[in-house]
Amino acid sequence: MFKALVLEKTPDFQATVREVDDSFLPEGDVTVDVAWSTLNFKDGLAITNRSPVVRSWPMVAGIDGAGTVVASESPRWRVGDQVVLNGFGVGETHKGCLAGRARLRGEWLVRLPPAFTPRQAMAIGTAGYTAMLCVLALERHGVKPGAGEVLVTGATGGVGSVAVALLAKLGYTVVAATGKAAEADYLRELGASQVIDRAELAAPGKPLQKERWAAVVDAVGSHTLANACAQTRYGGAVAACGLAQGMDFPATVAPFILRGVALLGVDSVMAPLALREQAWARLARDLDATLLERITTEVSLEEAVAAAQRLMAGQVRGRIVVRTA
Predict the structure, then answer these.
(1) Taking a C-beta distance cutoff of 8 angstroms, is the pair 271, 133 a contact?
(2) What class does CATH assign to 125-265?
(3) Distance CA 116, CA 139 (A)
(4) CB burial class (10 A; 0-12, 13-18, 19+) of residue 313?
């Protein structure tokens, strides 16, 4: 028996922690004892039933997990291997990792980098891994340190916090946008050279605005993304990975056809294995692990529902790790 955060519609929505056994697990060729999980924005949406994230019921929440293989029919994995899981529909269509145990597919898993403990890997989680994917996308576009200011929106969130830390460590000049003025010192500790009010970006703006940003990492969407594009310098790039403000994109083509701005879509859920492995290798190299404690709050599995509610209310800074055992 082990505990799991189970989402049900019977017929009303419920999110409860209860004991289940292996018969509750889905099909898969690798069984993992999950040591740590985490709460991402998508987990918050699912656990609070704010959005139709879950497509199969009942569901175990948790799109991320880190732990140890206890059974394997996959040629890639042996009992005792330490692994990390991010995305692939886990917690949406396949029972997830906010539980003491998960049954997964071997091709979804990445080996835990030796630089990180399972807890540290979940302090990074999908949010931090997505931030790294954004940095990789900007690098592929040719954005280099010294090119100018790089804007990070939603900077106190999970993606934003890790993006600020990564970019600063790599030598970029980072400007952090946040609605939490009290967190300015926190963002500067992560490496931001300047902190601006998200209100400067959140309202409708002109199709083309004064050029400022060499590049942008945006986890917010909507008017914020539109304004970020409108302020990006000639030949710059915007890596878009989130929708905290909204899924809409109320913009024009002007930045793209008049300034050659590139809008780079970043998906973490179905990213191919080679890219995942590259992202985790770069996280191990480029993320200052000592900052993880600064950005992380720890909760138990029993506290995860309340923590998800705080996350969706905008009351959480950085990352939440969840003890599943």
Answers:
(1) yes
(2) alpha beta
(3) 24
(4) exposed
Enumerate the domain spans of the chain: 2-112+291-323, 125-265
DSSP assignment of 46-57: HHTT-S----SS
**pLDDT (tens digit per residue) in 230-263:** 999 999 999 999 999 999 999 999 999 999 999 9
Q: How far apart are CA 12 and CA 95, in angstroms?
A: 19
Residue owning tokens 């109320």:
250
Residue 169: closest CA among 143, 197, 192, 202: 192
| C-beta neighbour count of 278 within 10 angstroms | 15
Closest by CA position to 266, among listed 133, 132, 127: 133
DSSP for 242-306, please give it.
--SSBS-----SHHHHHS--EEEE---SS--HHHHHHHHHHHHHHS-GGGHHHHEEEEEGGGHHH
CA distance 13 to 61: 13
Per-residue pLDDT reduced to its tens digit, 190-235: 999 999 999 999 999 999 999 999 999 999 999 999 999 999 999 9
Q: Which CATH architecture has domain 2-112+291-323?
A: Alpha-Beta Complex (3.90)
pTM of the model: 0.94
One-character DSSP codes across 20-37: E-GGGS---SEEEEEEEE
